[in-house]
Amino acid sequence: GENVEQHPSTLSVQEGDSAVIKCTYSDSASNYFPWYKQELGKRPQLIIDIRSNVGEKKDQRIAVTLNKTAKHFSLHITETQPEDSAVYFCAASKDDKIIFGKGTRLHILP
Amino acid sequence: DGGITQSPKYLFRKEGQNVTLSCEQNLNHDAMYWYRQDPGQGLRLIYYSQIVNDFQKGDIAEGYSVSREKKESFPLTVTSAQKNPTAFYLCASSRFTSEQYFGPGTRLTVT
Questions:
Q1: How remote is the C-alpha of B13 from its chain's centroid?
Q2: Rounded to an integer, what distance in angstroms lies between the CA atom of residue A35 and that of residue B18?
Q3: Partner residue facing A32 (CB), from B45, B59, B97
Q4: Exposed, middle or buried: residue A36 (CB in 10 Å: 0-12, 13-18, 19+)?
Q5: What is the pLDDT of residues B46-85, one digit of tens each?
Q6: CB-based contact B34:B15 (threshold 8 Å)
Q7: Interatomic CA distance for residues B54 and A90, integer angstroms
Q8: Closest CA to A4 of A64, A91, A87
Q9: Is some CB atom of chain B closer than 8 A to the CB atom of A101?
Q10: Side-chain half-sphere CA neighbours of A88 within 13 A
Q11: Is any Cβ of chain B less than 8 angstroms from the Cβ of A8?
């Protein structure tokens, strides 16, 4: 079955700097790759997603890149702000079955 | 965030008892999911259902059971066979291979 590896598990960046979180997946048939943000005590919420026919997608300060050949995808957050502090999960999906990575706890330092 | 509800928010049970967690959605989504969240383990898939009266095992289905008699409802039963049931349980729903909407979660404590 699908296996999703996510790195790093914890990331601290200075406010205003960029943050990058990386994920790899094992099933080459996976075709949908969402990223979720979970703030403390809240439910996960989708922040950006990408499908397998696209290499990059941007939404304001957030971007995701996908390399299907290498089976990895990354989340990029630019100009980080205090409200970006949260746990971020990547996921890979095929036919409605979604497998999540273990998460990255992002700390934004003042 | 509205449209998918879980109850109760906190649940306490004695070891050896079965317990059922409720999940209801009014988003008209076909697919529904149950995840277990433990510190450092991310979201692990227990069961998912793509259509009424059908469901599939996820990666950690042992000790759990589900039913999908109605499109809106996907209850999860944690049985006494689950060796370590204390956890935070999240339900989600989605249209086919798209954004998942999560419920607020149920924190189950078994003593």
A1: 17
A2: 34
A3: B97
A4: buried
A5: 999 999 999 999 999 999 999 999 999 999 999 988 889 9
A6: no
A7: 27
A8: A91
A9: yes
A10: 30
A11: no
